[in-house]
C-alpha cells in the first residue's frame, strides 16, 4: 500500500514596507508570478472589527462603548486618533487583535498545508513595529523607497495633505530599522513597473515561492 508522505507546514514569508513603498504591488505580483497565497494582516484585522467581528466586544469592553459604532463595528476613525496619540492604547488594541489574527493565520496555514502549498506570504504593514511577528516568520522581505517618494505617492493616491501623511510616516519605524529587519530587500524607488516586476521575480525565485498547480 502506497502512502503519500505527510506534507510539511507552509513557510511563512513576511512582506512589509512603509506606507507608499509599493508593498501591495509586490504582493499582487507574487500572486500572479508564483500563484502563492497572500494573507493581508490589515484585511484580517478589518474582518475582526467589522459588525459582528470577533474583536468588537473586547474593544468595547476595554476602550468604552463610544469606540463601537451604531452599526456594531469598531469606530476606526476614533480608534485611529486614540492610538496615534496614546502608545498604551496602541499596545492594548494589539493585545486584543494579534491573538485573533494569529488564529486566523493558523487556519490559513492548515488550509494551505491541506492543499500541499509550500509557502504563504503575509502582508504586514507594521511588521517591524511589532515584536509579535518576527518569531513566527521564516523570512522577512522589505519593500523600500525614500521617505520623499513615500510622501509623494501617498499624497497622490489619498489626497491627504502633506502634514497628515508625515504624521502617519512618523508613527512607522524609521527606514533604517526596516532595512535592518530584512532578510531580503526589494528596492522600489523611481523605477518602472516592469523593473519592479523583475525584482519581484528574482526575490520570489530566491524564496522558492513557486507553487504546484
From TrEMBL:
Family to which the UniProt record says this protein belongs: Belongs to the CoaE family.
Database matches in InterPro entries: Depp_CoAkinase (IPR001977), P-loop_NTPase (IPR027417)
* Keyword terms of this UniProt record: ATP-binding, Coenzyme A biosynthesis, Cytoplasm, Kinase, Nucleotide-binding, Transferase
Q: In which pathway does it act?
A: Cofactor biosynthesis; coenzyme A biosynthesis; CoA from (R)-pantothenate: step 5/5
Which HAMAP family does this chain map to? Answer: Dephospho_CoA_kinase
Question: GO CC terms on record?
Answer: cytoplasm
The GO biological-process annotations, alphabetized, read as: coenzyme A biosynthetic process
Query: What is this protein's record name?
Result: Dephospho-CoA kinase
Q: Where does ATP bind?
A: 20-25
Any GO MF annotation of the entry: dephospho-CoA kinase activity
User: Which Pfam families does the entry mention?
Assistant: CoaE
Q: Write down the chemical reaction(s) this protein catalyses.
A: 3'-dephospho-CoA + ATP = ADP + CoA + H(+)
Transmembrane intervals: none
Which purpose does this protein serve, as stated in its record? Catalyzes the phosphorylation of the 3'-hydroxyl group of dephosphocoenzyme A to form coenzyme A.
Q: What is its EC number?
A: 2.7.1.24
| Originating gene | coaE
Q: Which CDD domains match?
A: DPCK (cd02022)
Subcellular compartments: Cytoplasm
Amino acid at each position: 500500500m502506497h502512502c503519500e508522505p505527510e506534507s510539511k507546514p507552509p513557510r511563512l514569508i513576511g512582506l512589509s514596507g512603509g506606507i507608499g513603498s509599493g508593498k501591495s504591488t509586490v504582493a499582487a505580483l507574487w500572486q500572479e508570478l508564483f500563484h502563492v497565497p497572500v494573507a493581508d494582516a490589515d484585511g484580517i484585522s478589518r474582518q475582526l472589527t467589522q459588525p459582528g467581528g470577533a474583536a468588537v466586544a473586547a474593544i468595547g469592553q476595554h476602550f468604552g462603548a463610544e469606540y463601537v459604532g451604531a452599526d456594531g463595528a469598531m469606530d476606526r476613525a476614533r480608534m485611529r486618533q486614540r492610538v496615534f496619540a496614546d502608545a498604551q492604547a496602541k499596545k492594548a488594541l494589539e493585545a486584543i487583535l494579534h491573538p485573533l489574527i494569529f488564529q486566523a493565520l493558523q487556519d490559513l496555514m492548515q488550509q494551505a498545508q491541506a492543499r500541499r502549498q509550500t509557502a504563504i506570504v503575509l502582508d504586514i504593514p507594521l511588521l517591524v513595529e511589532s515584536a509579535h511577528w518576527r518569531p513566527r516568520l521564516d523570512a522577512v522581505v522589505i519593500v523600500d523607497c525614500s521617505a520623499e517618494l513615500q510622501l509623494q505617492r501617498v499624497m497622490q493616491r489619498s489626497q491627504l495633505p502633506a502634514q497628515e501623511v508625515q504624521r502617519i510616516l512618523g508613527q512607522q519605524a524609521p527606514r533604517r530599522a526596516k532595512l535592518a529587519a530584512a532578510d531580503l530587500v526589494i528596492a522600489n524607488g523611481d523605477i518602472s513597473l516592469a523593473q519592479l516586476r523583475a525584482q519581484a521575480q528574482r526575490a520570489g525565485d530566491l524564496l522558492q515561492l513557486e507553487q504546484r498547480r
